[in-house]
Structure formats: structure tokens, C-alpha cells
């Protein structure tokens, strides 16, 4: 029998307060791994080259080039391992368990050394208050296996929904990817236009016109897991728009639309609720911003010549 759309095993409860220590520790671990991509991967627009990607078991860097070979780093939140594998068929495994950021950092660098990968990274964390260098951080050292298994499950469900939403758009859009700086999963659509907005000081700020939607597990600043959406630059009236599903709202603290995860997981169909949130926040941006929806939303296959009978 197929699981119910609202099966609690697919949408587990994970209040931030119950796993905040683990969340903060793993956030730092992903920053260590993500900075390998920052150093070695060719730059892409909007920092896409540094992001991680959701896998059935956790998160991965995808292939990273190094000299004459490639390697990949994978977080497995089911077997609770960090695996580093190379195209030379060599591998190193690090156990994910309660340990300090300092110890994890040293283990990763030592494992890379054994694989003949010599690299130095900037050890100061990004986008967090009161950053502690990795080699000095003995403050963050928690790892709750049950919480990480729940987090893995949630990421997989969100990744599925965001991928379906992304497939409805044939303009420029980001992959569905996980940013280790903000510790959030996100997808972004672009019109291909650049706009300047005049600031109060008389200077102008340039934006690539976009709509973004994502999921974050909570943080010290905003200790509630949920979904967010924003438009840059926001068209006039955007944040006064009516958004689906019920419970979605504009949050003045974040300056974004938000939808609490704990409310979503108890709905009859959480998956469709996520897509409704993504779609309605996008439509508000596109309609008020006069996006060329007739071209940006054409079915992609209509633009690809048939190769069936060639």
C-alpha cells in the first residue's frame, strides 16, 4: 500500500529548538566541505558552483576537479558517514557522530591528504553570527542521529517539490541546490533582465530580476523551520499579495514571504502545499513585475526538435 500524502514518516516533526545544537554543528561541517568547491570549482553565476545537492541519503558536492582527476564528498545521514571518493577508485570514510568542528575539520583534511588532495581553505565560517575558525571550534560538537535522519527525509521531500516547480519554467533558472552559507535549499528563476533601484542615499543598486523559493531548518536568528520566497527587486505591491496556502504570510523581520514547516506537514497534502506556495509567490512577482510569462512558461519540449524519427 502506498503511503498517505500526509504520512508523518514522510513529513516528520523537527522543531528547531529540539535539535539546534546538532543543526549548528552540521552547518559548520557543510561549510568545511562546501569550501572545497569554493577553492576548486570553476566560478558560475550567482555562486552556483559552491552549492551542495540533495541525494537520497543526504548531501553531496557532486564532482570536484583536482589536477588530473575528480573527487566527490558525500554526507550520508542514514549510515552517518562522510565519504570522499575519487575517480581513481580510492575512498576515505569519516564517521558522523558527536565531535567538535575542530576534530571534523582535521579529519577531513587528513583524509584528503591520504587521497593526495592538497588544499587549503579559508577556515572562517560565512553568513553566521560570531564565527569561530574551524580549527579552533570546540563549541559545536553535537550530532543527533535521529534528528539528522528526519532532516534528510525533509530535504528529500522539499527537493522533489522544488524540482517539479522548476520544471514548469523554461527561462534561466538555478538548479535546486543547498547553500551551506545560509544552510538552506533553494531554487531561483530569472527574467534575464537587470534592473536598477534608487536607494535612499541617491545611489542605485543593480538586481538581476528574479524570484526565489526555498526551505531552511531554522536558525538562532529565526528559530522556526519553514519555507520562504522573495522577489528581487520586489515589484510594487508584491508583499501585499494574497499567497497560498492558508498560513503563508509576509514576515517583516525577514522581509520575505514565509510558510512554517510545522503547519505544512499536518496538511492533507504537504507536497502540493509547497508547490502552491512556490507558484503563488512566483505568479505575484511575474504578474506585478510584467514578466514575459507567455515565453518563460512554455513547455520546454515544445522548443526541442523531435528526434524520434531521425
Task: Show the helix and strand layout.
Layout (H helix, E strand, L loop, with lengths): L15 H25 L12 E3 L2 E3 L3 E3 L2 E8 L4 E6 L4 E5 L5 H14 L30 H22 L10 E3 L4 E15 L5 E13 L9 E7 L16 E3 L4 E5 H4 L5 H19 L4 H4 L14
Antiparallel strand pairs: 1-2, 2-4, 3-4, 4-5, 5-6, 7-8, 8-9, 9-10, 10-12, 11-12
Short synopsis of the structure:
The protein is an alpha+beta fold.
Describe what you observe in this structure.
- The chain is of the alpha+beta class.
- Helices cover 28% and strands 24% of the residues.
- The strands form two sheets. Strands 1, 2, 3, 4, 5 and 6 form a six-stranded antiparallel sheet that branches.
- Strand 11 and strand 12 form a beta hairpin.
- The chain is globular and about 55 Å long.
- The termini are far apart.
- The model is unreliable at 306-310 (pLDDT under 50).
Number of strands: 12
Based on secondary structure, the structural category is alpha+beta
Largest sheet report = 6 strands, antiparallel
Instruction: Kindly estimate the percentage of residues that lie in beta strands according to DSSP.
Output: 15-25%
**Order of helix and strand elements from N to C terminus:** HEEEEEEHHEEEEEEHHH
Radius of gyration: 21 Å
How many DSSP helices? 6
Distance between the termini: 42 Å
- Indicate the low-confidence ranges by residue numbers: 306-310
Characterize the overall form. Answer: globular
What does the average pLDDT come to?
93
Roughly how much helix do the residues carry, as a percent range? Answer: 25-40%
